[in-house]
Design goal:
With about 180 residues, this protein is of the alpha+beta class. Helix content is about 25%, strand content about 30%. It has three helices and ten strands, in the order ββαββββαβαβββ.
Length: about 180
């Protein structure tokens, strides 16, 4: 993945995802690297499904693929990227769907699962000069202050990072087609 950085004097986010059809922007290279997993996990899942489908021993005979009329919403902290097209690839790369979030689309069960399992890691670093480290139980205090996040302490530096997985999409099924 190529990283494109913009000059500091612009107000635009400096790091842009170069994955085809994405273009999502981030303030830091670390945020972009974390986002890259969205694409690699989806590609690995699609590759695994493709291998399963290619092996006749693992493929059920004459199984009808269920399809559903759905509306997919993107959960995105960055409003600039909220209306970029959603791209989902299932079974093989020739079976790729692209659509605008919030519009009705026909998806298979596999495509719905891929979207529902797409998460992004959200991380907050607790700075060493914060009062959290001075408490009797810094991990408990951090958990209380940052509800919904899981505290992780670096065994070497002792720094606490608060981590949570955030769903990238919600899929609302209207009906089976």
């Amino acid at each position: 993945m190529e990283v494109i950085s913009m000059t500091e004097d612009t107000q635009e986010k400096a790091f842009v995802c170069q994955f085809e059809g994405c273009g999502k922007r981030f303030d830091t290279a670390q945020q972009l690297r974390g986002h890259k997993g969205v694409h690699t996990r989806a590609a690995k899942a699609a590759e695994k499904l493709e291998k399963t489908d290619a092996n006749p021993a693992t493929k059920p005979a004459e199984k009808r693929v269920k399809s559903f009329k759905c509306v997919v919403l993107r959960h995105n902290i960055d409003p600039e990227n909220a209306n970029l097209p959603v791209i989902v690839t299932a079974n093989n790369f020739s079976n790729r769907k692209q659509f605008t979030p919030g519009t009705e689309v026909i998806l298979t069960e596999t495509e719905i699962d891929i979207l529902k399992n797409s998460v992004e890691e959200d991380q907050i670093q607790i700075m060493p000069d914060s009062g959290i480290y001075k408490s009797r139980d810094p991990l408990a205090l951090a958990s209380e202050l940052y509800a919904g996040f899981q505290p992780v302490r670096d065994p070497n530096s002792g720094q606490i990072n608060m981590i949570r997985n955030v769903a990238n999409y919600s899929v609302h099924v209207i009906n089976e087609v």
